[in-house]
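Friendly challenge for the regulars: who can give me the structure tokens for this chain first? No prize, just bragging rights.
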Amino acid sequence: MTKAKKTPQIDAVAIGRNEGARLVACLQSLQGQVRRIVYVDSGSTDGSIEAARAAGATVVELDMTRPFTAARARNAGLKVLAADPPDYVQFIDGDCILRDGWIAAATKVLAGNLRAAVVCGRRREQHPEASVYNTLIDAEWDTPVGEARACGGDALMRYQAVAAVRGYRDDLIAGEEPELCLRLRDKGWTVWRINAEMTWHDAAITRFGQWWKRTERAGHAFAEGAARFSTPQTPHWQAEVRRIWIWGVAIPLIAVLGSLLHPAAVLVVLAYPLQILRLKGRMGWAGAVFNTLGKFPEAVGALRFYLRRLSRTEARLIEYK
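First reply, four minutes later:
Bragging rights claimed.
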């Protein structure tokens, strides 16, 4: 007699703070998709905790006497799951909505590839038309399909694999998912991006200052990732940091300091419009402009990391919402 296939147990870990209606929609989208939902709250004051409990989620209130990181919140969720481990765990941010059909598509990949530890799909912005920043973020989520180096905050993961590498690094204020994937790949696991709709995301970035802070956080992540985790065998974000130094630091310094010797040195800034023209064919005008402009907040974030490292001070989240 043929053995019936065991239905995999799937749990979800959602994290958030003051997400309001977005959290309610997030938890509703998980209903019926997973066995249980763990919601980790990081100091909400908008009734998120009560809403999560009403939705049937197990609620973990993060200790806010310690600096918050999304990595620490996700690890707190994993700790709850350890008492009755699932086969797979769906990580999701509280400002996201799980798409219908995602769990089935992702589970199929994990079940058919026993070395696969992580599966992610297409995350889309709910309102890309709301601002140029939302439009750019929607394009940012559109990564290549196939074996990947990393995932984002939303992904279905094999619990056994994540637990074996002890989850996320609590001390990372950004870039914790690529670092986790780096350790998983080092252990022989693989990461996959599939052609399936995964989540709706609501960035709600409508102001330049929000975009600047978000990009600054990315610069901090690039610098920290390259400094702490890159090796000759597995380089990690070294190319990104080189671009930050060239476009965000070196060219402005050459222009300013060089002009003290000869006024013609300021012409070096023409590299920026030329870079925009070079990128325009691949990214469009908005993508090219903001990709080039973004090297300045990235440089601020990178310098913040290096200064923090020199002073040995604790990392603080760079928030844009």
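The radius of gyration is 21 Å. The longest helix spans residues 271-293. Your move, everyone else.
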